[in-house]
Amino acid sequence: MLLGEIGVGKSSLARRLVFDRFTRDYKPTIGVEVYRYDIPAEQAGVATSLILWDTDGNFGDAIFRHVYLKQAAAAVVVGDQSRPETIDSMVRLAKGFAEVLPGRFIHFILNKSDLIGAAESEALEQRLGGGGIPVTRTSALSGMQVAQAFITTAQAILRRGS
What we know:
By secondary structure, the chain is an alpha/beta fold.
């Protein structure tokens, strides 16, 4: 399940992962878009497929009342590093997901690394508060760390048997 405010790059990350391309034409997701990404055994330990639910950023906390969320094995919570206010939303969404689906894996992705410096990025990462939730800095534009972020998520899902 991809969670995050509107415009943080959830769809761009999904498209970069699945199709290995980036487009500047921004079209907000309405409802949910579903993508499939196959991961070979040498990358995840066992061949597996991720089904990505790219959610509408306008859902906010109401996302936790939707039936399809109950089947989520993990949450990838995305924030936009060029919009620091999205970091607070990431924390709130992760907390909501953990309350509704305790024990499921959560992964923070700080997207748009190409737009800010390393020191700013590290400061934003610290605002996420640790708590054992891994953080990956990505750029859907360049593809930096995108595949690795989702492979890390897949490996965690497989370890937990979810």
